[in-house]
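2024-03-11 09:14:02 DEBUG pipeline.ingest accepted 1 chain
2024-03-11 09:14:02 DEBUG pipeline.ingest length=321
2024-03-11 09:14:03 DEBUG pipeline.predict start
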Amino acid sequence: MKLKSVLALSAAWCAAIAPLLAQASNWPERSIRVIVPFAAGGNTDGIARLTAERLTQSLGQSVVVENRPGANGSIAAQAVQRADPDGYTLLMAAMPIIAILPKVQKVPYDPVKDFVPISNIGSNPFALGIGKNVPATNLKEFVELVRKSPGRYNYASGGSGSVSHLSGALFLKRTGLEMMHVMYKGDAPAMAAVLGGEVSMYFGNLSAIAPQAKAGNVRMLAVSSSRPTPLFPDVPAIADTYPGFETLTWNGLMAPAGTPRAVVNRIADEVRRLGRDSAFVDRLAALGVDVVADGPDELAATVQSDIALWTDAVKAADLKE
């Protein structure tokens, strides 16, 4: 009886998995949606559209970008979580909705269990910028300035629990500085506050701070990657002074849990090819993004390490986990 039961279960499993395997071998047979958790016009949307354009060419089917902003990205994540795991609905995942958001608010998805990592398309560090009237010209001078006057200087963020907020909190923890956190409704008003002299420091996207630094409106003291970015090789990394400091954001493709591995690998292979395409690399570089173009296992490891890092940041910012 036991042997019969095992054979019956095996037959049932084969019957259930056979359609998925057949589907994977023929994939893609129709258009593919890439759901973006933010409005059009930002870095994540730009990366998604450049990637979709090139995947349309290589896969032979339309890859369509669909923006679903709202609830800090959880609306888009839930839409992908609930989609059929057939490879036709993908999430342009952004690090904050995977590693930070579930730590600071209740979300309707599990960032690890509900998605299959495919590929980290690209990452970008943040720039530590200070107002042009702050009397410091490099990171060491700025740290010494703030240390001599605890509580006098402040820093901006695009909102509680945002990357700019948590990067600032980790920086203060590492340096032992005391600065007041001033929260704005988004990164654009936070950047405007730095330009207007309302705040002293801000961790912002390179694409936002670099043009202002070039115009002399802010000073870009350092980047948050472990080493200087190729885009600005003369700007030091915070890690040069405080080894181990690193905060990055990334954008990568994920699929609903249960998506066939053959489909996941196919998409990852196509993204790897994009990573070797100089034109694609250059177009992302214009957005301040360093192309990564890795595979499912590498992105899974990145997710795990980032969850640990940003859990620490949430605690440093004294936010509820």
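2024-03-11 09:14:41 DEBUG pipeline.report Strands lie at 32-36, 63-67, 89-94, 115-131, 154-157, 180-183, 201-205, 218-223, 248-256, 290-291.
2024-03-11 09:14:41 DEBUG pipeline.predict end
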